[in-house]
């Protein structure tokens, strides 16, 4: 059973574009539908989530806190090392993990987990190794599609929370 979802950020939960204003302040855009699904996963269904990203941005901490993401790691070179730490803390195995990523720095992690996903605009190298390629692009519903697929495998549905 999948109990932990792991999310890359740039290109997965965002469209991969990084914008700086005239003062050097970074902005990112997150899809509200992805957010609703992540929040349901953590707060309504009570499962765990992790953000593991290669870059550093205070925006990621803020978004993770809003959505109930317990584990937020930034500036990570080898995502499998961090994933192993989380698994030990939670007493889980790789068979309990689904992850989504979009580029070369995600491949090692994606190959190690039970279920792996990527957005439709992921690099070809990632598309060739994941379990599922989303119909949606990064920052435009790919994470929501992943969560719905995992919930369906548990005989659960997002809509059951609101209907």
Describe this structure in words.
This protein has 163 residues and is of the alpha/beta class. It has one domain (4-92, 122-154): HAD superfamily/HAD-like (Rossmann fold), CATH 3.40.50. It is built from six helices and eight strands. It has helices at 32-44, 58-67, 79-90, 107-112, 124-127, 142-153; strands at residues 4-7, 19-20, 26-27, 48-52, 71-73, 97-100, 115-118, 132-133. It has a six-stranded parallel β-sheet with strand order 5-4-1-6-7-8, with helices on both faces. Helix 1 (32-44) runs parallel beside helix 6 (142-153). The model has no long low-confidence stretch (mean pLDDT 96).
Keywords, separated by commas or semicolons:
single chain, 163 residues, alpha/beta, Rossmann fold, six-stranded parallel β-sheet, globular
Low-confidence parts lasting 5 or more residues at pLDDT below 50? none
Q: What distance lies between the first and last C-alpha atoms, to the nearest angstrom?
A: 25 Å
- Please compute the radius of gyration using only Cα atoms: 15 Å
Oligomer: single chain
Largest sheet data: 6 strands, parallel
Helix content: 25-40%
Total beta-strand segments: 8
Provide the CATH superfamily.
HAD superfamily/HAD-like
CATH topology: Rossmann fold
Tell me the structural class.
alpha/beta
Molecular shape: globular
Order of strands, widest sheet: 5-4-1-6-7-8
Summarize the structure.
The chain is an alpha/beta fold. It is built from six helices and eight strands; from the N terminus they run βββαβαβαβαβαβα.
List the helices and strands and how they pair.
Layout: E1 4-7, E2 19-20, E3 26-27, H1 32-44, E4 48-52, H2 58-67, E5 71-73, H3 79-90, E6 97-100, H4 107-112, E7 115-118, H5 124-127, E8 132-133, H6 142-153
Parallel strand pairs: 1-4, 1-6, 4-5, 6-7, 7-8
Antiparallel strand pairs: 2-3
